[in-house]
Amino acid sequence: QVQLVESGGGSVQAGGSLRLSCAASGYSGSPYCMAWFRQAPGKEREWVARFYFTSGSEAYADSVKGRFTTSRDGAENTLYLQMNSVTPEDTAMYYCASTPLGADSCLTSRLKYWGQGTQVTVSL
Fold first, then answer.
1. What does the pLDDT read at residue 54?
2. In terms of DSSP bridges, do strands 33-39 and 113-114 run parallel, antiparallel, or are they unpaired?
3. How far is CA 44 from CA 40, 77, 110, 118, 122, in A?
4. Are strands 58-60 and 92-98 parallel, antiparallel or unpaired?
5. Rounded Cα distance, 22 and 68, in Å
6. Which of 103, 109, 96, 82 lies closest to 38 in space, CA to CA?
7. 87: how many CB neighbours lie within 10 A of its CB?
8. Mean pLDDT over all residues of the chain?
């Protein structure tokens, strides 16, 4: 059974940095793709970034482009989200998600596994 566990959330001041981790276990191999989402209170879930394990390519939402980056632990199915120059608008619960083995798309509808989330709070 695949499980995703996020960690690294916390409180940070505006302009600071935080690194989130998402550890995936239970895969007999690597997922096609892992992604980060966030949801602020009273708002809809928002896609943040995705990372393609097969190619190493990445994609980011405009709201975080240039400030957030993803990376992978080379030996493990662990995805990181480096958050720099954070603002109060980045305050949210952050979730990671991943595709099942054999997937060939990273569309949200194809993300089968989801973590429980880690809270990020940015203060002025």
1. 84
2. unpaired
3. 7, 27, 19, 16, 19
4. unpaired
5. 15
6. 96
7. 12
8. 95
How many CB atoms within 10 Å of residue 25?
12
How many whole angstroms separate alpha carbon 14 and alpha carbon 122?
6
Specify the residue for token string 């054999």.
102
pLDDT in tens, 32-42: 999 999 999 99
Report whether 100 contacts 112 (CB < 8 A): yes
How far apart are the C-alpha atoms of 105 and 32, rounded to whole Å?
Answer: 8
Q: How many helices (H) and strands (E) does the chain have?
A: 0, 11
Which helix (H) or strand (E) segment holds residue 120: the answer is: strand 118-123
CB 7 within 8 A of CB 118: yes
Q: What is the pLDDT of residues 54-74, one digit of tens each?
A: 899 999 999 999 999 999 987
First to last CA, the chain: 41
3-state secondary structure (DSSP) of residue 71: strand
Measured CA to CA, the distance from residue 18 to residue 32 in angstroms comes to 25
